[in-house]
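Student: Send me a single protein entry containing the residue sequence and its fold in token form, directly below this note:

Tutor:
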Amino acid sequence: MSSLDLRTTGVDAGIVDVVVITPHPAKPGARVVRAPWRILTLRRAAGVRCTGAWELVHGSIEPGERPADAARREVTEETGFAVERLYSITVNPFYLSTADTVQFAIVFAAVVAGGEPTLGAEHDAHAWHTPAGATRVLAWPREHQAVRYTMHLLRSGNAGAAEQVLHIAPR
């Protein structure tokens, strides 16, 4: 099987989207937690692209950087959180009219300890949501899909039978 050289196709795999999740705290005496994960959403600040839009962590892959390393870096830069576990989820294509290219956003799920994030200048608010709550506020349909895929793959707390393939060990 031959590989596709993305540098010669007008396709750019230079974006990472990261679904940042933390275990949902169980209420004392509760038997079942309906949504075992909480998902972090961030609101775009005034004066930046898409002001007011709620989104997941995302950003560019730096030259020479591995996508998984970019995902970890973006989580830390945009939230201050350290990634405890990282999973490969999917790849989402989209058209970027300003560059006249098809972009690929490589989607990861990052498990973090939770708490209050430290936001950078591009975001002015955050919220932890159930999966359903996150999809109600997220601006981009591809992010809705990323949340659904993440919840399906990590529904038991890890990737189950796919753990060996989807879990990305730290380097």
